[in-house]
Design brief:
Keywords: Membrane, Transmembrane, Transmembrane helix. Pfam families: DUF6384 (PF19911). This protein has three domains: about 70 residues, no CATH class; about 90 residues; about 110 residues, no CATH class. The chain has about 325 residues and is of the alpha+beta class. The longest helix is centred in the middle third of the chain and has 58 residues. It has nine helices and nine strands. It is rod-shaped, with a radius of gyration of 55 Å. Helix content is about 55%, strand content about 15%. Strands 1, 2, 3, 6, 7, 8 and 9 form a seven-stranded antiparallel beta sheet that branches.
């Protein structure tokens, strides 16, 4: 009985020959110098085939001339060569799909950065808007109310024309500051009115110091006139409860200003001598009140003659 080829034999033979042809092309590509030299010259196919037989024989393979011819033609036609697709949208999309995991991470980072930047810009913008609105409200509403309130309380405490004039002057400064949008100056005016009220509320006596070991009076010889003398009586500011009160004093000698409870008031020689005689009797000044600062007034009401000026040290 004659043998028959399997039903799939012709297809298998064609596939084997195709694979051999592809191998021939691959061999020719690896022997690139040979291929370029031989294929670049007409009529050299036979010599090329002989060289290919030697190569395959060295590998223990026997290849038909038909397969070798097919491989040479395929190489010439670049039949089995891979030609990448030209640049374009399809190629770009394909590459993005292949690298989608890495691209996704990069895209996510970019989205976060863009969103964060947008959020930061929005926050900065909103912060600036809030600051501008707060400044507007302060100038238009907050400070005017504060200024009016401070003026009202200071004026309510003022008992004399000088105190009322001082309050009105501070209020005028504050309103001028508001008109030009100067919040800092307006706040300073409010603070000045608050300080004025605190000074008006305060009342105290200027009591002559009369304690063992402490000076009651001093005199100075001015540099400009060594033949003259300036006389001072040392006093303390004491409130109705007997507590010392710190008051602002400016020294006429060097212009230094300080808040102190003890200082020396310049007086005429007659006042100085009268205090000295009072103390000489028994070492104690009996008539100790030099002046009184009443509530509601900025001025001191003197009980003895005094001159303008004071000193802070002696």
């Amino acid at each position: 009985m004659a043998e028959t080829a399997p039903a799939g034999a012709p297809a298998r033979v064609e596939l084997d020959e195709l694979m051999l042809a592809m191998d021939v092309v691959d061999t020719l590509r690896h022997q690139e110098g040979l291929a370029l030299k031989e294929l670049g010259q007409d009529g050299r196919d036979a010599a090329l085939k002989a060289r290919l037989r030697e190569i395959y024989a060295g590998q223990g393979l026997s290849v038909d001339d038909r397969v070798l011819d097919e491989g040479i033609r395929a190489l010439k036609e670049a039949r089995f060569a891979y030609t990448p697709p030209p640049p374009g949208l399809p190629r770009t999309l394909a590459r993005l799909w292949v690298a989608r995991a890495r691209v996704g991470v990069v895209a996510a980072v970019l989205v976060v950065l863009v969103a964060g930047g947008a959020g930061w810009l929005a926050y900065q913008g909103s912060a600036a808007d809030r600051a501008a609105e707060a400044a507007r409200v302060e100038i238009a509403e907050t400070l005017p109310r504060a200024l009016d309130g401070a003026l009202a309380t200071a004026t309510a405490e003022a008992r004399d024309a000088a105190a009322k004039a001082a309050a009105a002057a501070l209020a005028a400064d504050g309103r001028a500051a508001l008109a030009r949008g100067d919040a800092a100056a307006a706040r300073a005016a409010v603070a000045g009115l608050d300080d004025l009220r605190a000074r008006l509320v305060r009342s105290y006596d200027l009591v002559i110091v009369s304690r063992p070991g402490e000076r009651t009076g001093v005199f100075r010889i001015p540099d400009a006139n060594e033949g003259a003398r300036n006389y001072y009586v040392v006093v303390e500011a004491v409130d109705p409860d007997g507590r010392l009160v710190a008051v602002p004093v400016t020294s006429e000698e060097d212009g230094r200003r300080a808040t102190v409870s003890k200082f020396a008031v310049r007086v005429p020689k007659a006042t100085y001598d009268a205090v000295a005689r009072d103390k000489a009797d028994d070492g104690i000044v009996e008539d100790r009140v030099l002046g009184e600062k009443p509530r509601g007034s900025l001025a001191t009401e003197w009980s003895k003659p005094v001159l303008d000026g004071a000193i802070l040290s002696w």
